[in-house]
Amino acid sequence: MSRRHELRRLTRRKLLAGVAGGWGATALGAEDNRPLVPDDTTKLQGPPPTELGERSPFVKPRRLVMRAEPSSASRTPLQDLTGIVTPSDLHFERHHAGVPKIDPERYSLLIHGLVERPTVFSLSDLERFPATSRLYFLECSGNGGEALRDPREDLTPQQIDGLTSTSEWTGVPLALLLREVGALAEARWFLAESMDAAVMTRSIPMGKAWEDALIAYAQNGEPLRPENGYPVRLFLPGWEGNASVKWLRRIELSDRPFFTREETSKYTDPVPGGKARMFTFDMDAKSIITFPAYPQRLTDRGYWEIRGIAWSGRGVITRVEMSVDGGESWQDAELQEPVLSKCHTRFRKLWNWQGQPATLVSRATDETGYVQPTTEVFRKVRGEGTRYHFNHLRAWRVQKDGKVVFTPA
User: Fold this and answer.
1) 138: closest CA among 297, 315, 319, 343?
2) Using CA atoms, how far apart are residues 101 and 197, in angstroms rounded to an integer?
3) How far apart are CA 71 and CA 96, in angstroms?
């Protein structure tokens, strides 16, 4: 068992002793005779720093890449991360026709349609506007589908929900650019168009543009990575990832939606009764336990800290409940600061495992009062043909030998 997971398994005696002793390094290291810091005689001479920092060779998180050319994706290793910010190189990625290579010196963004002054902005033009930075999650609308369609025991958190990540996004509020070009009052929708080979296009209500839409050119303190839209992308906080068009080249204002290929043949969901859901932008509240989870194993009886993340496209996560009996009873988990709107929120709950079989489930509630549904309720409301917005409960079964496997909730 790794050192990180060993420290998660704390008996009540150790927990109280640690609080009383201030979690001193000597106290924790003495019990297993492994010092947490080298003594004065240890020599740790190493190479000088490099121009690009690297992780320790002992830390090896990896994205899970799924290639199905030309449409491919990669998933964030949720079970390997701490905090709420996803490192840029581990941020999930989804594209429909490869990743274009774009020269920033030749980049331009056209804003036209129902505006007074159609304008072309270069990257340097955009960077001259007052910038804003905001922490938000991003999620593919198909995230979680594998857990519903093929609920195998050997699914990891990364395989189930790895198509979501949180970053600090920096750029220009779209509302500022719309005032610059003189958006007309009759404009009700705008078209966002990509310069990738798929020519990804989505219709977006103008209300979102005025509220919090961002024309982003940086992520986590550096220019966007190519897979995440370099040099410029649209970012729509809390909405399905496909609508946050990457490699953005054109915005056209109109008095009606454009009904593009991507929002008719693809990002439209059939529902019971012969109808379909269109323009279902908001990502619903959901949560997943990231420890313990497959392929981890509980190696000893005693106190373990159950941990996970929750998020909602409609605002702040206000509550996460935990169950160790498959949803028969619930207790509140602790929300770990910071708790921010439209961001991943970490939760935790101490659990005294005594070797009995158990089914661990988490359930999120957001500030609108929406509660994450069971799989049964989700199927009843959305139907069997649904392809997007999978936010039903996720569960892990702990077996007598401590092995943890995925199970439907």
Assistant:
1) 343
2) 11
3) 4
DSSP at 39: -
Closest CA to 286 of 393, 401, 387: 393
Calculate the average pLDDT of the chain.
Answer: 91
Q: What is 4-29 written as a DSSP string? A: HHHHHB--HHHHHHHHHTTT-HHHHH
Minimum mean pLDDT among 10-19, 101-110, 272-281, 384-393: which range? 10-19
Cα torsion 82, 83, 84, 87: sign: negative
**What is the rounded CA–CA span in Å between residue 248 and residue 106?**
13
Measured between alpha carbons, how far is 164 from 85 in angstroms, rounded to an integer? 11
Helical segments of 157-299, H only: 157-161, 174-181, 206-211, 261
Residue with tokens 């729509």: 236
**Among 2, 25, 21, 5, residue whose Cα is nearest residue 13:** 21
H/E stretch holding 123: helix 123-128
C-alpha torsion 269→271→274→280, nearest 10: -50
Query: Is the pLDDT score of 13 beyond 60?
Result: no
